[in-house]
Amino acid sequence: MSETPEAASGVTTQDSAPRPPSLLALPSYLAGHVARIGHDALVEAVGRHGLRLPHFATLTALSDFGPLPQHVLADRLGFQRSHLGGYLDTIEERALVRRTRDRSDRRRQLVELTDEGSRLQRRLWQVAQESQDSFLGCFTPEERDTLTTLLRRLLDADDRARA
């Protein structure tokens, strides 16, 4: 079976386009598909260490913020509080975090990284960076910075709107 003239020349026509051209004009459509590509790369990279993305996010938040009350950690990550408990159970069993009673409020659980959790978080961060480098390899460093800046602006606007 031979290639069509359009395929041979690299030209995409309406009949040979892999996606509906009208949808490709919608930034939210593009963002959703691109996010899925990056998400899958990150899930695969973190999964090689026997963890899921919520575990990585939890370890990274604790690395960034230090020990936090469990409910504050859930809120900062945008997790349902009940779901965070299950994520913490998994990484606590692996001795990556520890939960202790908050001395200032005995009703609260403080969550903190263990030394092993800190070491693994640093390794996972490197793995995550490598997955992003691969995922965004078609961009120059300047384009990648611009993309990150624009995406952060959208996220910040949404955070302000929700506050």
From TrEMBL:
This is MarR family transcriptional regulator. Pfam families: MarR_2. GO terms for molecular function: DNA-binding transcription factor activity. PANTHER family: HTH-TYPE TRANSCRIPTIONAL REPRESSOR YETL, TRANSCRIPTIONAL REGULATOR, MARR FAMILY. Residues 1-21 are annotated as: Disordered. Residues 27-156 form the HTH marR-type domain. GO terms for biological process: response to stress.
